[in-house]
Specification:
2 copies of one chain form a homodimer. Chain A is α/β, with parallel strands linked by helices and about 400 residues long. Chain A has 14 helices and 17 strands. Helices cover about 40% and strands about 20% of the residues of chain A. In chain A, the strands form 5 sheets. A 5-stranded parallel beta sheet of chain A has the order 4-15-14-13-12. In chain A, strands 5-6-10-11 form a 4-stranded parallel beta sheet. The first copy, chain A, has a 3-stranded antiparallel beta sheet with strand order 1-2-3. The radius of gyration of chain A is 21 Å and the shape is globular.
């Protein structure tokens, strides 16, 4: 079995583990940089290797539309296409279908919608999405789910959660079907998916939904866990507008309800403080576009809070973005230089801040892992958050 | 004397040499990537080191406006500001004042104009421009000159050329004055400019003007050469709309009229075929925005001519941009992937094509140097150009 999760040490609900995939190990807790369109925006794969990223994300919805999952398959799969030899996880596109796409028509079979690129009509079913994710060839693939707004009422949340669970069963059946058939000549492209080598299958993660309703979350976790021995679990529909306390409460509920033996991936989270609070509550994997998106807008994570590099106060500031950071931006360039790049619309500025912010979250999860292994997570978390929040740095 | 030029071997007018500066040696013929605003657009300094760039350009006009040459000086000069430890050349801004800026008023003292950024009124004199270039602290600084359109009549061209020569004398006097005074505490920033260390002065290059009028070019070269023992020579006002034959003829005229012992820098050129034809006519240094600007538009130099990566034919093309290229784009990524990045407006695409195109010209001048040293420049040039021009690649 290629997908194993070994927990080295715990601290309350928090865990320091190693998640093994066909493309290598992921030490957890881990932040996964987001490469929606098979590129982590503004960064080079070499940048990500240098900063110690292990698993990264890509998105089935986006890659189906551009360049097409058939094109990616023809070119040898996502790892080869984007030159990333480490693990990849693909999100199914549920979130995108229910947020980006236009004119949705939903029924139990699937969703008809219009592409946000060209308005063309598309129909996604759980089976079709698994076919896309198989063409892409990521190590971990997420189920197709029905995503609803963060503050939906209980009836809507129950409806979406139960539909997602029905779709999960169909995703699993489709993956089993695809894995059981001998691939056609040249497709799928990756030898690791041959039917002869069951150890190299893709890991399908279910997604626990249920909005901010504890009983729905508990129900979903229970039903999903009883359906199959999953290699890991996604937790979706959080950090989408609900308040922080509700999010933390839901994580606690799901932490209790899910089996402890597998990695838990909190989808779309997040910010430094969210990472720390969620690690304390038993989360192992994270992803979020914030570090790159904010970086392209000039926002910088530092140990002393956030700052915006475009502010005039940095015009002649010779200091690095963050004195405690050893990333390829901070070890070379001044705030003044990076501000100049932003003021002058120079592309290098976008890259340097994206690089710094992604490095910041990777480093943060590495520190959390170390704190769990050293048995001082609570003290480390308290001190880290106190310094981060006590900041006099300029709010963004 | 820090600035020496040693010619290892010649082939007709062509020379293979080494130009020594306070920040290291430049093996010639050499292409100098353009970092107008203290960054070679879309590239990291590490990219340039990896591809073997030696001297790069920056621009006094642009850096005076943003972030201000005073800011660059305060931060330790251009080398430290942009983290480039190898040689730098600054263009004076003559070309920008006469092309970008608005509402010019010219007299013999200097030029009044409006900034292209914010419309603020500015007055550039030869002395003021040398002060800017001293604050920036490049190894080689270009004189402030009067630049005119490529096909100007002889009277206008003579007027501008003679004014440029009068301004050159004032540039030299101002540089001597600045070098003779003990710098104030902290300014200029670079210890290499202390008055105690005459070996580390900045090298002022004159610019030979004269449009497409052979007699004016000859006159200018003669007067400039008689004025001073310059460490090198710029040749300006070419590749600005005149036809290729006129350009090559002017280069031949200037090659004959200038002393052979110093490097000649053909400003703003160019394209692969122009580099080869100009090297054959005695040029040692080149700069051009084409490789980065074209790269950002999807145009790619290859040994078999130019192509545009956005074309549909590359949608599933697994080949590198150029099979003979060992740059960091060609050794890793397919045309299909880079096309996908462009179609999806991903920043990595801009970086990869800029990187490839700059590498292409650096590699081309290295090959030319090797051909001169091996005594087979003419054969190499003929074969190179034949393959480049015989291409079936898609024209851009």
């Amino acid at each position: 079995m290629s997908f194993t999760f070994q927990i080295d040490r715990t601290a309350g609900s928090a865990r320091a583990g190693v998640f093994l995939t066909p493309h290598g190990a992921v030490e957890t807790p881990a932040f996964m940089p987001v490469g929606t369109l098979a590129t982590v925006k503004a960064l080079d794969p070499d940048d990500l290797v240098q900063m110690g990223a292990s698993m990264i994300l890509a998105n089935a919805y986006h890659l189906h539309l551009r360049p097409g999952d058939d094109v990616v398959r023809e070119l040898g799969g996502l790892h080869r296409f984007m030159r990333w030899e480490r693990p990849i996880l693909t999100d199914s596109g549920g979130f995108q279908v229910f947020s980006l796409a236009q004119l949705r028509t939903l029924n139990d079979d699937g969703v008809e919608f219009q592409s946000h690129i060209d308005g063309s009509r598309r129909f996604f079913t759980p089976e079709f999405v698994i076919q896309i994710e198989r063409n892409l060839g990521a190590d971990v693939i997420m189920q197709f789910d029905h995503v609803i707004p963060g503050q939906s009422d209980e009836a809507s949340a129950r409806d979406a959660s139960e539909r997602s669970i029905r779709w999960l069963a169909r995703c699993l059946a489709e993956l089993n079907r695809l894995e059981s058939i001998q691939p056609l000549e040249g497709a799928p492209p990756m030898v690791t998916f041959s039917a002869d080598d069951p150890g190299n299958r893709q890991a399908l993660f279910p997604i626990v939904q249920g909005g901010i309703h504890a009983s729905l979350r508990r129900d979903a976790a229970k039903k999903i866990s009883e359906m199959h021995d999953w290699p890991g679990f996604g937790i979706g529909g959080l950090s989408v507008g609900e308040d922080k306390d509700a999010m933390y409460e839901m994580i606690e509920v799901v932490d209790e309800a899910l089996p402890k033996a597998h990695p838990r991936y909190l989808m779309g989270v997040g910010f430094p403080e969210d990472l720390i609070e969620s690690i304390r509550r038993g989360i192992d994997l994270f992803d979020c576009v914030a570090p790159t998106r904010m970086g392209r807008n000039g926002a910088v994570f530092t140990r002393d809070g956030r700052l915006n590099i475009k502010n005039t106060e940095f015009r002649t500031d010779p200091r690095p973005l963050d004195a405690d950071c050893d990333c390829a931006a901070c070890t070379r360039f001044s705030r003044a230089y990076i501000r100049h790049l932003f003021v002058s619309d120079e592309i290098l500025g976008l890259r340097l801040l994206s690089l710094h912010n992604v490095h910041f979250l990777l480093s943060l999860t590495r520190q959390a892992r170390q704190a769990i292994r050293s048995g001082n997570l609570e003290q480390w978390a308290r001190e880290w958050l106190a310094r981060y929040r006590a900041t006099s740095a300029v709010a963004v």
